Amino acid sequence: MQINLNSPYTPEVVVVANGDLHHDEETLRLLQVAPHVVVCDGALRRYLELTTRKPDAVVGDGDSVNEEELKRAGVPFTKIADQETNDLTKGVTFAIDKGWKKIAIIGATGRREDHSVGNIFLLPE
Q1: Average pLDDT over residues 17-21
Q2: Model's pTM, two decimal places?
């Protein structure tokens, strides 16, 4: 697959959620051109299957990640125990706290309806 790296949108960070992750041209392009990548803990296994790029951070409540995957990712795990928010909210908040405002989110929908609805309602915030 030929990836067009010159597409007009380049985010400061890509936040990878635990929904459907596609191997389409735009997803792969975003992962290549974004200066930063934050992976929600439940998405780490599929992220590692999608790319060899080391993420800047793996973020979440720790319920969906294992030590072997963290070792493969090569970054420390940022545990946020807040049970009032989902992992995507934690990932986006982490990115904003780093000063990254231009955010692309991939994998936000497609696997669980309750998570998809929660992720969609995160956008206006």
Answers
A1: 84
A2: 0.83
